[in-house]
Amino acid sequence: MDKFIEFSSKTQGRDKAYRVVQYASKLLGWGLQELEGNDEWVKKLSQLESHASLGRKFFRLGRSIESLRAAQVTINLVDPVLKTTLTVANINRALFLGVDNYLWMGKVGILKVDKGWDLTSSKFYFASIILSLVRDLYALYVGMIRLSSQAKLDSEDATKNSFRAKYYLHLLYHCLHENSEATIDLIKNICDLPLPGSKLGYFPNHNGFVGVCGTISSLIGVYQVANPRMKLRP
C-alpha cells in the first residue's frame, strides 16, 4: 500500500498510469472494432483514450523547464557521447513539451491552434527518442568493452569464427543481464519510437500496432518510476 501511495503521489507516476490507460484503450478499441456489435464499447474506449491523453497533457504543463534544467546538467558531462546525446535529447524533449503545452491550450479552447503543430511536436519527440536509443546502445557497448577486458580469450581459439560467434553472443547476453537498466530503457525506447513515428509516416499508422507498442513502453515506464534504481543514469 505504501508503495502505491508513493507512486501515485508522484506527477510522473500519475502520468505513466494515464499513459497505460491511453494506449491500452487504443489497443482494446482496435480489438473490439474487429468484432461486430461492439460499437458502443469502441466509442467509450475512444473517449477514455482521449480523456487520458488530455489529462497527460495537463500533467506535463511546465515540464519543459525540467528538461532544460537537465540539459544544463548533462552539458557538463565528461564523456563526449553522453554529453552530446543526453543534452540534445533533453533540448528536443523540452521543445516537444513546450509545443505539447501549446497543443493542450488548443484542446481546452484557450487558444486557436493550427493542427500542423501536432506534427512539429512529433518531430521533436521522435528526435529525442532516437538520441535516447543511441545513449542506450552506447551504455551497452561500454558494458561489453568492460566485460571483454575482464574475460580471458585463448588466442588460438579466437581465430575460429564459430568460437568467436559464441563468445560474442555470450558476452552480449551477460552485458544485457548486467546492464539491466540500459536493456530495459532500450526496449522502452524501441517501443516508444513508433508512437510519433506513425504520425510522421515512418511506421504504419495502425491502432493495433501503436496500441501494443504504447502499452508495453508505458508499463515499462511504470516499472521504472516504481523502481527508481532501474532508471538509466545519468
From TrEMBL:
<protein>
    <submittedName>
        <fullName>Peroxisomal membrane protein 11A-like</fullName>
    </submittedName>
</protein>
<keyword id="KW-0576">Peroxisome</keyword>
<dbReference type="Pfam" id="PF05648">
    <property type="entry name" value="PEX11"/>
</dbReference>
<keyword id="KW-0472">Membrane</keyword>
<dbReference type="GO" id="GO:0016559">
    <property type="term" value="P:peroxisome fission"/>
</dbReference>
<dbReference type="InterPro" id="IPR008733">
    <property type="entry name" value="PEX11"/>
</dbReference>
<dbReference type="GO" id="GO:0005778">
    <property type="term" value="C:peroxisomal membrane"/>
</dbReference>
<keyword id="KW-0962">Peroxisome biogenesis</keyword>
